[in-house]
Amino acid sequence: MSLQGKTAVITGSNSGIGLGVARELARAGADVVLNSFTDREEDHALAAELAREFSVKAQYIQADMSKGADCRALIAKAGACDILVNNAGIQHVAPIDTFPQDKWDAIIAINMNSNFHTMAAALPGMRAAGWGRIVNIASAHGLTASPFKAAYVAAKHGVVGMTKTVALETAEEPITCNAICPGYVLTPLVEAQIPDTMEKYGMGREEVIKKVMLERQPSREFATVEQLGGTTVFLCSDAAAQITGTTLSVDGGWTAL
Q1: Mind telling me the catalytic residues?
Q2: Model confidence, pTM
Q3: Rounded to 5°, angle at Cα 24 from 253 and 112
């Protein structure tokens, strides 16, 4: 699958799933635009490293995905956006009656509202180019729920709904919009949840991974960032030209339960 000549913008992509997706898109020949809210030398060095490794163009653009203006500016600064991967996300776990309002607002803004702003900004360029692919990284929690994750579950369900709407709005154009719904992937976001979960259940790391975190993931294995990247590349390929408005679960059987 060659994506040469295409430019991919991946939000939240200086680590974890976003970086894994960027690497696989670059491996397929796409020029890539990395993004996060920081603006460090290592962020720009990461883009330069991808450019050297895969012989593509790569750049890093700082943008705060909690701010609509920044989301739209990211697309403008990229210069082109044939492929948009909305991946930026944060998490907080708490009962709904004690869920901090600032955490709720931030999760909804970054995990859901940013998708609205980037898609709205990218679609005119895709239409002008006569081709486009939008891949929203949702979650198994966009299809089902867990306790203590009200904001995350609400945001990811919203992403799935927006994905369907945009797909219907572009159904007669050479543009597709789909959502990938990962189960647990061992990323910095998930790593950050492990100590609190260990403390809550009084378990060691491996035990809490198998018995608690992966309890609903029948494979009892984490998905990998490379697998999510490969799934994204497939959705950008000609083979997936008639796949639009749907979700593709990469969750070890989680949502089959």
Answers
A1: 152
A2: 0.94
A3: 65
